[in-house]
Amino acid sequence: MALLTPYSKIPELNTATLLLVENEEQFQCRLADAIVQREKDVNVNVRLARKLPLPVENGETRPRIDLVVFIVNLLSEQSFLVVENSLNHLSSDYFLGKVCFVVTSARCGAVSQERLLSVRKLAASHRCPVICAEHQTDDGVTMAATRLLTILKVSAGLSPMPTTALYMSTLTRCTVPSDLDED
Amino acid sequence: KKNMLDFFILGLFISPGSAVNTPVRRPVTRRSKSYGRSCVEPPSLFWQTPGHLTTLGHRIPTSRRAAKSHNITEKVDPEQVALLLDGEWKLSYVTPLFLFRHTQLKLYSKRLAAFIIAEKQQGVAVEVGLEAGFRVSFSAVLGMAETEEDAETISSRPVFGADGSKPVWQGWLTCVNGDPEYLRSLPPDFTSLPLFCSRGAESLSALVKSWFQRTFDCSFGALGLSSSTLHWLAALWTGCHPAAGIRYLKLGWTMPTQPPLDIEYSVDPQDAWELWNSVHKEDGADERISVDEVQSFINGLETHFFRHFKIYLSSGTLTKVSTALGSAHHHGKIKVITINSDYISTVLTLLTECALLKTPV
């Protein structure tokens, strides 16, 4: 079983489902509340998980997941390791625009720069965007929710302009300047 | 009774000889793929500024030279080295100093003394016959320069304070093995001494820093040691075990629980050495340690801990590393023990790099 696939279930009308994966479970709840409160036109379901693979028992009742968001807290190495392991449980179809990385505490002085760089490299190798979020203030949470909603609507096929998830992710994917370019 | 302030500088005279300044970053050329639509390239500028907040940007070294036990006392006066190593130092980074001349140290010491006296007397009624004076002495420690960029060292006589009075505050500025491209790219009047270590009263540190800021137009900032730096130090010190026994390797972690849990993990030196040996390949002549080896070393220690206690150490922060050769704390305090002063240049190189990495552009 193992892999989570995006297209194995039928989508529901005017609904989008988001999966937030975070090891520490700090930011997930606030972000989920903010997302649900902001969006009035579309039904947004937010599901929370600590890591992938998701439990098998819920497999039948779980709706089709349109966007998987990995939240990495840069203050802990464990957070990054869990995300790395979880990526193996996603089917490769997800990486065509249905995965996004959110990073918190990126501006904290105590964080070593190598961690942010390794997250960006991971995202760049999977062609996914990286959003830096501020999780301590309400404004920061709202801003992150708005950005995620924008991406969610595109990847669920609900955006009014004819935009596909693949086009969007190609525009917004993370790139890391390689050492060759800098020298 | 005179109070005396000792101020040492590990001096580095960077020769501004080269006429051509290589800039630190050349304009980044993106290899563009032709999609047939020009609006698709370059994608990253829509969402992220490639902001380099610090001077060295993304250039983080992936391998470093191992500690060689070369005898540093040949090059540097052993008395001065001993004074440097005694006790715990608080670290900060410094932006490059403008118009700093190693030849004018005496003038600087007079000015700094006058400044401190003036600041101390602000708001205090001046009594007649007040004798309180501060004596400041600047001196340059020769012989710490490492690479070819650090061309000439200054031949000035190091001045030690008068006998009898104890120093109330000590501090030093240094640059050891700084990034050569960065140093070459500085404009000619700037001297870069990015690492500042101080010990003593906080108020005096603040006064000295503000004097420096006014005189040389530089700025100071607190330098914390990130967990990767602490990992390097742990690996370096463990690698020195056969030559100079470390006696213990202690690592302190803080777990983000309620209330926060502090874990102290002591490793027997022989076991640590064996683990390090199994990870690190001896390259022969050029002893370089790569960041992967350091990471495997730390992973080994962490998985061992997990196997016994079922706690993921990587979800907490590493706060302290200590061995018999020295200790480092993640708030930016370092202590190198006098016994093995030979490894100080490697430690200083690492700290200089940290300071350069943190200095904002």
Automatic annotation (TrEMBL), chain A:
The keyword Flavoprotein is annotated on this UniProt entry: no
UniProt keywords (A-Z) are: Centromere, Chromosome, Nucleus
Coiled-coil features, chain-numbered ranges: none
Q: Which Pfam families match?
A: CENP-M (PF11111)
| Superkingdom per UniProt | Eukaryota
Coarse class of the primary localization is nucleus
Per the record, its GO cellular-component terms are: chromosome, centromeric region; nucleus
Q: Where in the cell is it found?
A: Chromosome, Centromere; Nucleus
Keyword set includes Nucleus: yes
Q: What is this protein called?
A: Centromere protein M
Organism, by scientific name, is Astyanax mexicanus
UniProtKB/TrEMBL annotation, chain B:
The protein's matches in InterPro entries, at most eight in alphabetical order, are given as: CENP-L
Q: Name one GO cellular component term.
A: nucleus
Which keywords appear in this protein's UniProt record, sorted alphabetically?
Centromere, Chromosome, Nucleus, Signal
* Pfam families per record: CENP-L (PF13092)
Signal sequence interval, chain numbering = 1-19
Main localisation, per the record? nucleus
Its annotated compartments are:
Chromosome, Centromere; Nucleus
Q: Which domain of life is it from?
A: Eukaryota
Checking PANTHER family in the record gives: CENTROMERE PROTEIN L
The entry sums up its family as follows: Belongs to the CENP-L/IML3 family.
- This one is known as Centromere protein L
Organism of provenance: Astyanax mexicanus (Blind cave fish)
